[in-house]
Design a protein that fits this description.
Radius of gyration: 29 Å
Structural class: alpha+beta
Strand content: 15-25%
Distance between the termini: 70 Å
Shape: elongated
Strand order of the largest sheet: 2-5-6-9
Order of helices and strands: HHEHHHEEEEEHEEHEHEEH
């Protein structure tokens, strides 16, 4: 049974049976949540994920990012390992059921092996938060999975990923897991993004910085006053009509008497 499940689910999330065999089992990816939730008032979302995995698939920018780059990450890892270990081999991993505790299962990204290190598992993560800054910079944030200890990066012991890889090693009966955090280190020019950025910057410079430099319209202390018909020709620098909440200038340094809250970038009077 264990071998059949393992061999028939090597495509993991692309395989219908992978979801079927996960149903009712605590898998490595939810092990921490299962250990920490109350047995009197358990997490309903966790129960749904465990008992009905096929019905609770989800897609986020982070998961899409991971799926798009999974092959890149594994290929990079394999290439590096083969440089160091001539006997290194790896293979796809299906869902493994724990023989001692059949309600526990795990499916790492690959099984790995070499002559000197023996058998192990591979778990690859693709932190979307580190996509544009790299692993070292991301490790300085409190919510990242890695931390510096004695000058080296390590997986945080209280993190869900630590529970995950410990479960994988226990189910597989191996002594180590290669935990790989992958992120592209090169950034290339994104013309569409740059044009949008420049357009926004130009608008901010024209409508905010220039008026401030000449008249200090934004940094002066203003007072909210009710609008009046006599001010119709001296409204906001946007030249728009009198509408919504507006702020009156205090002083005569500015050519305009009233300003829209939105044009000033505020929601209430200072």
């Amino acid at each position: 049974m264990v071998q059949h499940v393992r061999s028939s689910t090597r495509e993991q999330s692309k395989c219908t049976m992978w979801y079927a065999y996960r149903a009712g089992r605590i898998t490595a990816s939810v092990m921490k949540t299962a250990c920490c939730t109350s047995t009197e008032t358990p997490s309903i979302s966790l129960l749904k994920k465990i008992c009905h995995p096929e019905m609770h698939k989800f897609s986020t920018p982070a998961t899409t990012w991971g799926l798009d780059h999974e092959a890149d990450a594994i290929n990079s890892y394999v290439a590096e390992m083969k440089k160091q270990y001539a006997s290194f081999v790896h293979s796809k991993s299906g869902l493994w059921l724990c023989s001692d505790h059949p309600y526990i299962a795990a499916s790492p990204d690959a099984s790995v092996q070499c002559a000197c290190c023996g058998k192990g598992t591979l778990e690859v993560k693709f932190p979307h938060s580190a996509a544009n800054k790299g692993v070292l910079a991301a490790s300085e944030t409190s919510d990242f999975c890695l931390e510096f200890v004695d000058g080296s990066l390590r997986l945080k012991r209280a993190h869900a990923y630590f529970y995950q890889v410990q479960t994988q090693m226990g189910v597989y009966g191996v002594a180590y897991c290669d935990f790989v955090v992958w992120t592209p280190m090169e950034l290339h020019m994104n013309d569409t993004f740059v044009q949008k950025m420049l357009s926004s910057a130009r608008k901010f410079f024209t409508h905010v910085i220039l008026p401030e430099l000449f008249t200090e319209c934004f940094t002066m202390k203003d007072t909210v006053k009710p609008t009046s018909d006599s001010d119709k020709d001296s409204f906001c620098y946007c030249q728009g009509p009198e509408s919504g909440k507006m702020l009156a200038r205090d002083g005569d340094q500015c050519n305009y008497t009233w300003f829209h809250f939105a044009c000033l970038g505020i929601k209430r009077a200072p």
